[in-house]
């Protein structure tokens, strides 16, 4: 069971060679003091 909040953000860009897509995953976790930490990973 996962206890993290995860968001996804797909994006597309049009170039002269075609359309390229990027999917970004944002993972929110909490440190020991209870503050939110976010990490972003890009997959192209």
Automatic annotation (TrEMBL):
GO cellular component, one term: ribonucleoprotein complex
Keywords linked to the UniProt accession: Mitochondrion, Ribonucleoprotein, Ribosomal protein
Keyword Ribonucleoprotein included in the entry's annotation: yes
Gene3D superfamilies (UniProt xref): Ribosomal protein S3, C-terminal domain (3.30.1140.32)
Keyword Iron appears in the UniProt entry: no
Family: Belongs to the universal ribosomal protein uS3 family.
The name this protein goes by in its record: Ribosomal protein S3
Species lineage: Eukaryota, Viridiplantae, Streptophyta, Embryophyta, Tracheophyta
């Amino acid at each position: 069971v996962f206890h993290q909040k995860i968001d996804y953000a797909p994006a597309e860009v049009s170039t002269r060679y075609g359309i390229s897509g990027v999917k970004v995953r944002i993972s929110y976790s909490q440190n020991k003091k209870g503050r939110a930490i976010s990490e972003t990973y890009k997959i192209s």
